[in-house]
Design a protein that fits this description.
This protein has about 290 residues and is α/β, with parallel strands linked by helices. It folds into two domains: about 220 residues, P-loop containing nucleotide triphosphate hydrolases (Rossmann fold); about 55 residues, Alpha-Beta Plaits. Strands 3-8-9-2-10-1-11-12-13 form a nine-stranded mixed beta sheet, sandwiched between helices. The protein has a two-stranded antiparallel sheet with strand order 4-7. Strands 5-6 form a two-stranded antiparallel ribbon.
Amino acid sequence: MREIVVISGKGGTGKTSVTASFAHLAQNKVVCDLDVDAPDLHILLDPQVRAKEAFVSGNEAVIDRDACRRCGVCFTHCRFDAVEKDGDVYRIDPLRCEGCGVCVALCPAKAIAFPEKECGEWYVSDTRFGPLVHAQLYPGQENSGRLVTLLKQRARELAKERGLDLVLCDGSPGVGCPVISSLSGAHLAVAVVEPTPSGRHDFERVAALCDHFRIPVAVLINKADLNAREVEAITELARTRNYTVVGQLPFDPAVTGSMIRRKALTETDSPLAKTLADVWSRVLEHANAPRKR
């Protein structure tokens, strides 16, 4: 089984549009949307949900007002200012509570419960391109790295159950915890890069992360006709670091048009569809090459 993760140093580079086209072109695969903080691949793939599970992670303190003695120990010791006081009544603001458990441990009346916290939902769905594993964190919730790991685990299990040989992931943007989880165990990272100074800088950061985990990098330069100097700089950077440039895509309003119609670009008659098909062939060739240690 091979695992390809499409990444970017920042949001808005065209990563999800590229992933949707790859999902259309790929055979025998499970598609996985790992951008759980702001998922959007489902908009293009129009999934029919077959299974839904709550994502439970961490704990949240809750004060039992009947059992509370109004001593104020929790209020005094909460370093996150999550305990609020209204007269002699104490309550915990769920948006401030970090789930550290100090108030639970110190409460002399044992009046503070510490239930597990539901942070979002994750799904296994059917799409016109095959199975999709995806999720949605509730607003303001954390632990997205843990949810990404859960999704990848389920996608791998699903691929094994159905005899599929590819897991194609739309990774999280940036270089934070969810990106590290997105890259874990991947055979290839496809970095979608914009030819701007900030785009090159963000690409360098996420590429360094891939280098740290010894994951090969394939580079796809999007909107390549807008800045020839930066395209040259990114290409030279890829050459010096032994990354493979698998293609360049020009700026084209057809990309936005296909998004509006909730279609992958390769489902349209745009000339870019052929370009993306060629890019996908090179990506597959790179992913199937023996991995250097």
